[in-house]
């Protein structure tokens, strides 16, 4: 059921906690199922392109070639593209530049959009989806008066892929509709994407190149929107916000060979996710209790619910695995964990560790 509110309730999640906190410092030695960055990345060819850009570091960054490449990748004119230092920067720009009186954020989802809105002084209304309907969005749940709506697709952490037509029904004159598609390139065929749509009023689509290509440390993403919206967001940016190496990476990742590689990676992720779900279905606790995994799952991660999740997470760390706690996402609680999809061998090792962790 939908929920709302701008003030803290009995329990207020830590919106600034993210998966990287699980694997910092000495914890970096843990097998990482907490961060949703594809393993084995960036590929050698991409590292070479980034390294080649270092010869030009004395010059100020020129984002025009990368902007044209992103535009061509989505069949859009360049004036509908804004390059950003990761998708996270885009949320800050939206919070600063979009004039909204009643913003609504659909939860559970990536918490940075709400955090950015609050930092900019906006009251935030939460539309909280529930497990009862599989965390799926019904457009009628979003308040009619909301003039800024933010929704993830596929949604982190639930791995729900909302139908494109349901998201499109949220668009209307006088409303800015922000769709976070940071993980859409991990969906084979990207069939629910709105990135190339120009007919929906107020549509703003966010994309990230950090997940599929292993560029979280480089910070590169982009916004797709109407030219006037792009101009407003660009005015809120500092000068030269995206570095020359990041621009080189964006241009390279939009080339046909890179898009083909990303499409193959998406298919492999889907197969590896099926294997993870199958292994989770086999895991049993000491009382025969099963792990409950949210399905269908369409992102490069799976959300699970189990008893004593916090204790199990601690035991998993002792067994060499880091997983993402779920209680920092509004709408979830201490019984949830998020697991990144990894290769089959890693999943098999994790399933054995999880069974041990469940026994205490």
Layout: helices, strands, pairs:
Elements: E1 31-33, H1 44-52, H2 64-74, E2 81-84, H3 86-97, E3 103-107, H4 112-119, E4 125-128, E5 148-152, H5 164-168, E6 176-180, E7 203-208, H6 210-213, E8 221-225, H7 227-236, H8 244-253, H9 256-282, E9 292-293, E10 301-305, H10 309-318, E11 321-325, E12 336-340, H11 344-359
Parallel strand pairs: 1-11, 3-4, 3-5, 5-6, 6-7
Antiparallel strand pairs: 2-8, 7-8, 9-10, 10-12, 11-12
Explain what this protein looks like in three dimensions.
By secondary structure, this protein is of the alpha/beta class. Helix content is 34%, strand content 15%. It contains 11 helices and 12 strands. It has helices spanning 44-52, 64-74, 86-97, 112-119, 164-168, 210-213, 227-236, 244-253, 256-282, 309-318, 344-359, and strands at residues 31-33, 81-84, 103-107, 125-128, 148-152, 176-180, 203-208, 221-225, 292-293, 301-305, 321-325, 336-340. It has a 7-stranded mixed sheet with strand order 2-8-7-6-5-3-4, with helices on both faces. A 5-stranded mixed sheet has the order 1-11-12-10-9. Helix 2 packs parallel to helix 8. It is globular, with a radius of gyration of 20 Å.
